[in-house]
Amino acid sequence: MSKTIKKNIDIDSHYQLTQEQISFYQENEFIKLKNVLSPETLAHYRQIIWDKTLALNTNTLAMEERSTYDKAFIQVINLWQENDRVKEFVLGKTLARIASELMQVSGVRLYHDQALFKEASGGFTPWHADQQYWPLSSHKTITAWIPLQAVSLDMGPLSFAAGSQHDQTYRDLAISDDSEMVIQKAMNDYPIECAAFDIGEISFHSGWMYHRAPANKTNETRGVMTIIYMDEAMKLKEPENPNQENDRRCFLPGIEVGQIANSPLNPIIYSQAF
């Protein structure tokens, strides 16, 4: 029995990508992959991620009293520092190697993780591009969006505006009601990819891929863990806005502009050199 459990709970194995999948990501900068993690693996880590997220949550206002951003989800960052089992999950090599191979880089570091729990009747997540917040020197960034359960269309799965990664018009807009009005109109020009997620299905998207999530119309919380990876050779750039300055302080402590982003919070998770 112990051997079976050990075999089924695996966060370090090699998920074999096809050249077609790598080429798709290189062209589109997003992809959904089925059966990346087994149901047993997700069940093993799900409860500790869930418990830690709710314990550390500070978003406790009634839904009707929250801003649009706060209605979208409970957000807890760098859970890997709070619990050894969560750390084991976040530093797993399976997802990190996928990230490296999709981006076609020699290895990846952790930027940070985020638990994003959309509560029952939680609001929509506005259109945005993550890298508006990141003081990083290149576009070689990627987020793994890891549902902790199957996500139906009514629960608010992640949606992508295919081709929007090339649109530089709105890159100075942080998430707000005003930005949603402007970006929503612009995203109508792109094909929208929105579909349910099976258990074990994980998406990956680049920092400049515009994405959103619909509201959660169910009476069940949608639990998602995300891990943000960056090229192992990534350098800190001069922050261009207050959000990037905040990220510099929070996630890149002690790193100077032009230096490799290798603070203690940014370990290499996978590298071809290892």
From TrEMBL:
UniProt xrefs under InterPro entries: Phytyl_CoA_dOase-like (IPR008775)
GO molecular function: dioxygenase activity
Assigned keywords, A-Z: Dioxygenase, Oxidoreductase
Cofactor(s) required, per the database record: Fe(2+)
Entry-linked Pfam families: PhyH (PF05721)
Stored PANTHER family: ECTOINE DIOXYGENASE (PTHR20883:SF48), PHYTANOYL-COA DIOXYGENASE DOMAIN CONTAINING 1 (PTHR20883)
Name of this chain's protein: Phytanoyl-CoA dioxygenase family protein
Organism encoding this protein: Lentisphaera profundi
